[in-house]
Amino acid sequence: MKQKNSFKILHKSKNRVRFLQPKLKSSSNERAYEGEILKLDGVNEVRVNKKAKSIVIHYYGNLDEILDKISDIKIAKNDDNLDISKKNIAIAGAALVALPLLKSGRGVVSTGAALPLLKDGIEELFTQGLTSKVLEAMAVGVSLSRRDYLAANSTNLMLNIGEYMEESTVHKSDDLIKELAKPSIKDAWIEVSKNGKKSLEKIPANEIKKGDIVVVGAGETIAIDGYIIEGSASINQVSMTGEAGSVRKEHGARVMSGTVVEEGKIKIWTELAGDDTSTQRIKKYIQNSLDEKSQIGLKATKLADKLVPITLSLAGLSYFINRNTASLASVLQADYSCALKLPTPVAFKSTIAKAGKSGILIKGAKSIEALAKADTFVFDKTGTLTAGVLKVDSVISFDKSWSSEKLLNLAASAEEHYFHPIAEAVVNAAKISGFKHMHHDEVEFIVAHGIKTHYDKKEVLIGSRHFLEDDEMIPFNPHEKAINEAIKSGHALLYVAYDKKLLGIITLIDEVRSNAKSTIKKLKELGVKEIVMLTGDVKEKANSVANELGIDTVYAELLPTDKAGIIESLINSGKNVAFCGDGINDAPSLIKANVGISMQKGADIAKVTADISLLKDDIHAVAQAKELANKTMSLIDKNFKATVAINSAILFGATIGKLNPTLTAMLHNGTTIGLLLNSMKGVNLSK
């Protein structure tokens, strides 16, 4: 194996390798190095251990090529920027305080304090050309050459304070976002054998080992990567594949962590667990989103860079007018760049951090910009406008010898073995009415259809109409009228058959959230022009809900595949669309919308699919996110206008010789720090 850097491979398995990197030192920056490796094509996950001088990578590309690329990456020193900024502030402050006390050596002390700034300016001049950092270094350099040590040191101190304020805000919000982005799989059930008997034991997900048998039921998230050894299930894989809808998986099929078992129960042989699972892709996604720059941030950066030559020209003009280097130094102090570049990203990061603490995960500045522009909000009804928790509304018996209560007890007796939302609703309703268990034989679960058992030696079938009528040949004709009336009312129906006859139906409803109406009202107050609802309900039921909540447009009787097409048509008509869904079945719509917002119950999946994920089960958080986005963009706009106005005035004064270098530095850097403080304070939600 030919490599540019001779890496000694310590262990290698399928798509995973651990090797020595002799260049790693105690001063190496693990976080920065991992980030650079993670950017390489073919790398899924990486872990650097500088103490052991080892690197573990999970890959899907060509290993030789990946190792060659890793050998080209420069290992940055662990010079934490925050610590450096603190140190530079202390040095600059000490130099400024010491000036009046020094009778000699002022130049040496001042130059030493400004050395990091001067060095950075020289490096940027040769690598990036004329930048704001170059102007800052020139301003301090001119002041030093003029022996104006007060101006040099005060400028240096102000610049370091501004840099520290920006970095501390960015670091804190980045760490919060990464913490919030971790998958929420905490525990799992594993099968253990003791004294020849098998039993289930609940353990922390991070303690699962290769070879463990993990048991996963309906509604649970798979914590490991592995293979099904027993059972079958409908599994939603959108978190890993982007594929909407569920996929049937049986014995021998491979499953991935982070995916959700919608129906069924399976036993999985663990192949990869803990940090080695597929859910690490979520971390990579979040890391990439942190590095994204907003459009307005890029605009500010480009404008600031364009203004650098103008500042230099004004400096030359000032020297021509005033014939002294003092005015030249003054103009160089008053560059637009810092005030334009720094407050904008800080404002975004501040909002992201505040949103995170409020239970709203926003993935980057672009999401805030898109949400602020959104003028059309589209809501999926089930699980979004409604609570997503089914409740039994009525029990209708078609056999006089079976009371509604007895019919409900029969259904609950069979369903209590499963954790499907419908099963839970039936069992809860039976408990409320005084549940009396009816002894039955073993229950057989038919994935995506229903359940089958025997009571009093006669067959019991519970499930969908397709399962009972088409698969089990149960006649429905005698009860069509009652069934159609229940369907028209917008209820979900569960059918119960006994002894080859349709015994009755259980109607279920998903109640509208109590604060859905106030949320929609708030969105309209925030400038949203149109509220749209998407639902599979019949039109009568959909219109009833829309009228109750104040929704403008309704699309009813939809198939899941219809939703993304509607989103696309709205965007094509010139609207900026925000889509709110549960993050499980709505993945295509969340992706197609200008900004996708996923509800809390789809949290793991939503972290990959949506731009904004609600970490609390509260629809009002949608309005809160919109309010934060609007106020953030307004704050940035105000900062931008203030920067241009104030710095233009300072530049004019400096150019005509009315401002000396020290005063210019104080005014310019004071403005920058003021704007940074304003951005750090950020925006607050209305009470």
Question: What can you see in these coordinates?
Answer:
The chain has 25 helices and 24 strands. With 687 residues, it is an alpha+beta fold. A hairpin with a 2-residue loop joins strand 1 (8-13) and strand 2. The two termini are 64 Å apart. The model is unreliable at 179-183 (pLDDT under 50).
Topology of this protein?
Elements: E1 8-13, E2 16-20, H1 30-38, E3 43-49, E4 54-59, H2 63-72, H3 81-98, H4 106-127, H5 132-145, H6 149-180, E5 187-194, E6 197-204, E7 213-216, E8 225-236, H7 238-241, E9 246-249, E10 254-255, E11 260-272, H8 280-291, H9 295-322, H10 325-333, H11 337-341, H12 343-357, E12 360-362, H13 365-373, E13 376-380, H14 381-385, E14 386-397, H15 404-415, H16 421-432, E15 444-446, E16 450-455, E17 458-463, H17 465-471, H18 480-488, E18 492-498, E19 501-512, H19 516-525, E20 530-534, H20 539-549, E21 553-555, H21 562-572, E22 577-581, H22 587-592, E23 595-598, H23 603-609, E24 612-614, H24 620-655, H25 661-681
Parallel strand pairs: 13-20, 13-22, 20-21, 22-23, 23-24
Antiparallel strand pairs: 1-2, 2-4, 3-4, 5-6, 5-7, 7-11, 8-9, 8-10, 8-11, 12-24, 14-19, 15-16, 16-17, 17-18, 18-19
Helix pairs in contact: 3-4, 3-6, 4-5, 4-6, 5-6, 5-10, 6-12, 6-25, 9-10, 9-24, 10-24, 10-25, 12-24, 12-25, 13-24, 15-16, 19-24, 24-25
